[in-house]
Amino acid sequence: MTLAPLPSTQADEPSWRTCDGCGTLLYARRLAEHNFVCPECHHHFRIPVTVRLDLLLDKDSVQPMDIDVPAWDVLEFVDTKPYPSRLAEAAAKTGRAEAASAVTGRIGGAPVVVVAMDFQFLGGSMGTAVGEIVTRAAESALATRTPLLVVTASGGARMQEGCLSLMQMAKTSAAFAALRSAGVLTIGLLTDPTFGGVTASFATLGDVLIAEPGALIGFAGPRVIANAVRQPLPEGFQTAEYLLARGMIDCVEPREGLPALLGLLLRAYRPADADAARSKDHSGRARVAPDLAVEGQAPVTDADALDAQAAAQLLRDARAIGRPTTLEFAWRMFDEFVELHGDRLAADDPAMVGGLGRLDDRWVVVLGHQKGNDTASLIARNFGMARPEGYRKATRLMHLAQRLRLPVLTFVDTQGAAPDIGAEDRGQSWAISEALAALAELTVPVVATIIGEGGSGGALALAVANRVLMLERSCYSVISPESCATILFGNPDRAEEMAERLRITPADLLRLGVVDAVLPEPPGGAQTDPGQVAVDLRYALSHALRELAALSPIELVEQRRCRFRRFGQSAAIVGMGKTWRPDHDQ
Fold first, then answer.
1. What is the per-residue pLDDT across 439-493, written as a single tens digit (0 to 9) for each?
2. In terms of domains, do 361 and 491 share one?
3. Which residue from 373, 431, 556, 563 has the least number of CB within 10 angstroms?
4. Are residues 265 and 321 in the same domain?
């Protein structure tokens, strides 16, 4: 396969272009200087493969892959022209043999295999040749354990090749499934337009899905849908932004920011065999990575060393509107962080956030409940009470952590899962139970931190961990004291009394063995000095990961299982109450 430049010369190209977004007449050279993005309305023009690769990959790193696959005219298809004539015209127009090109290169210094599609070649349609190029590139990525990036621009399957084109959906999907099973990172960059069989196969199978602003993405085209439903389509229907709000993609990124974002994602990837090599010294014994974090205040592991706190006041402190949130800690603690969105089913729940972060020399998957810092953000994020879509997003990122062999750090701050009709209709219990099971089975380290209020199963869904930490003015309970009082006494008036009886304080939970350590907070709470609390938390998390690095994947799962298996065994609870059994003789 030869990656040829476009046949047209600069002299042949128009000097002026009209923006499809705002109608502005743009000087072509100025447009090129803006990466073919309108400087007036930021409309992203469609660009050919050569330009795309120049924009994304490091200079002089592109190497075309030797994949020379001819298209098959098995059907001897003719519409207004014979299929071979259409292929010849498309090749003359684009300067390439097919609608997809495969190359190797680097983005931000990280190696990558790239497949880029060209909409100018028969609408970027996927026939046997395109399917073979995508599959061979995926097989090469698998063999070398190199991340694979696919840049899509397609109208769908190629009609001129009939069912042989349809079969490419299965073939490419199987190739991506093999990469997923092997833990090789795959990224989909969806550009305008991406439709049909390409969208319904490899384009949307990436571990991370990114779209350019305004890109149209879907299965059936908007005209087909409009004709079928015979009613106006929703505003923004099938745009990248529309899909982001519905949880189908991870982020929408302007063209100029793509190299930096892709470089970050590629740096987060570590092949499993490379990790194994790094984790062993020459004697074969486990070697722990150095702790590079700024040293913070050590957490407390002795309950008696904590100041006595009234449970009701502590609960008010945990709910304080100004307490640092998950995202605030993420931006303060991690050297690099990118938020990922969506459950890939229905929505992106703003009450549950997640992404990839770098803590010293370790990349991790970050998950957490997200409340807010003022009335508007609290309402927008449903006070941190996640719905099924939030827990499904968390589970999706847990699976990503498993595939990429990344530790998981979770931040718990919720009164509980959302208790509304819609959440129940969409399977709240099922979503929480799947999150619990996913965490239990992860073969990577999991460290949870309760940063505010930890309430009920909605909190536990992020806290099935090898280590559980807690901020000094946070709490953790089976139920909110108000709900407890309502259930037992018919109204919430005795909530303060129930707060004491539920034993929700850090000291109580240390004695119960529910948490492992408590991080001190400054007078007035974490909100008075969030920067210092972030330093302390970073130090504690780094220390916990350093300890857990010595455990094998099997040992991590077993340690987590044993941690929770012991609750209910008499030896696990010392000095916190009496054992009662029914007297069958009475």
1. 999 999 999 999 999 999 999 999 999 999 999 999 999 988 888 899 999 988 9
2. yes
3. 373
4. no
